[in-house]
Automatic annotation (TrEMBL):
Matching InterPro entries: FAD/NAD-bd_sf, FAD/NAD-binding_dom, Ferredoxin-NADP_redctase_2, Thioredox_Rdtase
E.C. no: 1.8.1.9
Source organism (scientific name): Rufibacter sediminis
Record-annotated FAD/NAD(P)-binding domain positions: 9-297
Name of the protein this chain belongs to: Thioredoxin reductase
Organism classification: Bacteria, Pseudomonadati, Bacteroidota, Cytophagia, Cytophagales
Oligomeric form and interacting partners: Homodimer.
Superkingdom, taxonomy of origin: Bacteria
Length: 314
């Protein structure tokens, strides 16, 4: 029977670019990190076909392969990579306690949280089926593949406006689908999209269906006032209705913003609890890129190493 309690120096929760980068640095520093991969080993990049904006891959790489490369590199330096999900935590005392799969308790001197954020989706069958084949939740990641083509984006907040404007520099036409007759975005962002000639805002509309068998060919829209449907031909469909940080189990102990993103001391990965660090998209609602996540993963491992060294000094 598996031992239900274990003590470790460094526990990493999550396995995207942030978690793996933290693991590489922590294992090279001799912290003998234990990583639990979570619900989606490899994180959001495992549902990204082509990654062309990560330095070091001149011809690009697909997301799952990139995450496998990260995993192998972390394992090579001795990271103990395990399947399992952190289901509860207790950061009220030392050592920090993390329960895995509701049964095994890990006591950790340091905890690095790299649980990421999940894109919010519309919930359509066609959206799930065509995810990665024209459907995306990241314009900065995937807009490049639709150069000179017509695309649609759903959303009405600042992020949607920002991504629509980003796409307008690449695509011949951007349809912005807005549910009501107004946006939630700040005035300056609204004005930016309204004054961009190749962005067309379609008001009072929701996505009824994404059209296409193997890739996106168009979108069927439904008018929220008249109930009438119409179709537009597009090659790319971007969902920009927000992200949900995977931070619920940590919120009773760690400071977070109103959306649930964990707060870190600026310029560090430190949370309000000594010995607990956060990196990647669970604490970054601005950039949300693989390269920035990996950078903060490196920071978290270095912060954890320095924290442990300071304990030994005392």
């Amino acid at each position: 029977m598996e031992n239900q309690k274990e003590r470790v120096k460094c526990l990493i929760i999550g396995s995207g670019p942030a978690g793996y980068a933290a693991a590489i640095y922590a294992s090279r520093a001799g912290l003998k990190p234990v990583m639990y991969q979570g619900l989606q080993p490899g994180g959001q990049l495992t549902i990204t076909n082509d990654v062309e904006n990560y330095p070091g891959y001149p011809t690009g790489i697909n997301g799952p392969q990139m995450m496998e490369d990260f995993r192998q590199q972390a394992a090579r330096f001795g990271t103990d990579i395990r399947y399992g999900i952190a289901t509860s935590v207790d950061f009220s005392g030392k050592p920090h306690k993390v329960t895995i799969d509701e049964q095994k308790e890990i006591e950790a001197d340091t905890v690095i949280i790299a649980t990421g954020a999940s894109a919010k989706w519309l919930g359509l069958e066609s959206e799930a089926r065509l995810n990665g084949s024209g459907v995306s939740a990241c314009a900065v990641c995937d807009g490049f593949f639709y150069r000179g083509q017509e695309v649609a984006i759903v959303g009405a907040g600042d992020t949607a406006c920002e991504e629509a404007h980003y796409l307008s520099n690449l695509c011949s036409k951007v349809y912005m689908i807005v549910r009501r007759d107004e946006m939630k975005a700040s005035t300056i962002m609204q004005n930016r999209v309204k004054h961009t000639p190749n962005i067309e805002i379609i008001w009072n509309s929701v996505t009824d269906e994404i059209l296409g068998e193997h890739d996106v060919q168009g979108v069927r829209l439904k008018n929220t006032i008249t109930g009438e449907t119409s179709e537009i031909a597009v090659k790319g469909f971007f969902v920009a209705i927000g992200h949900e940080p995977n931070s619920k189990i940590f919120q009773p102990f760690l400071q977070h913003d109103e959306s649930g993103y964990l707060k870190t001391i600026p310029g560090t990965s430190k949370t309000n609890i000594d010995g607990v660090f956060a990196c990647g998209d669970v604490q970054d609602n601005v950039y949300r890129q693989a390269v920035t996540a990996a950078g903060t993963g490196c920071m978290a491992a270095l912060d954890a190493e320095r924290y442990l060294a300071s304990l030994e000094d005392h």
